[in-house]
Amino acid sequence: QVQLVESGGGLVQAGGSLRLSCAASGRAFGNYAMAWFRQAPGKEREFVAAITWSGGTTDYTDSVKGRFTISRDNAKNTVYLQMNSLKPEDTAVYYCATDRRAYAYGLGTTQYMYDYWGQGTQVTVSS
């Protein structure tokens, strides 16, 4: 059984930083791309960032480019999201997810390309 457990969320002032972690188990972690999505109150879940199985390629939604960095440590079965220069509009529940496809070349930006999800971690940015 695949399990994804996020941690690292919290309350931070605008301009601050947080580092989210997502620990995976139950699947050969290093074979699959990973992604972060987020969902703000009253809004649909949206793509934030993704990283290939090797860690060699990343992708970000435009609103976080230059501020967020996704990375992974396959030895620790963990994916990270470093969030800097946080803004109130970054407030959301953040979810990590694992790609359906092993050794995929491309990165998916829609939630339907990911089959396992964590429970989410709340990030709140105050102004």
Describe the structure.
The protein is built from no helices and eleven strands. It has strands at residues 3-7, 10-13, 18-25, 32-39, 46-51, 58-60, 68-73, 78-83, 92-102, 114-117, 121-126. The strands form two sheets. Strands 2, 4, 5, 6, 9, 10 and 11 form a seven-stranded mixed beta sheet that branches. It starts with a strand and ends with a strand. It is 0% helix and 53% strand. The protein has 127 residues and is mainly β.
Distance between the termini: 40 Å
Spans of at least 5 consecutive residues whose pLDDT stays below 50 are none
Alpha-beta content class? mainly beta
**Strands, total number:** 11
How much of the residues is beta strand, in percent?
Answer: over 45%
Write the layout of secondary structure elements.
Elements: E1 3-7, E2 10-13, E3 18-25, E4 32-39, E5 46-51, E6 58-60, E7 68-73, E8 78-83, E9 92-102, E10 114-117, E11 121-126
Parallel strand pairs: 2-11
Antiparallel strand pairs: 1-3, 3-8, 4-5, 4-9, 5-6, 7-8, 9-10, 9-11
Keywords for this entry:
127 residues, 7-stranded mixed beta sheet, single chain, 4-stranded antiparallel beta sheet, mainly beta
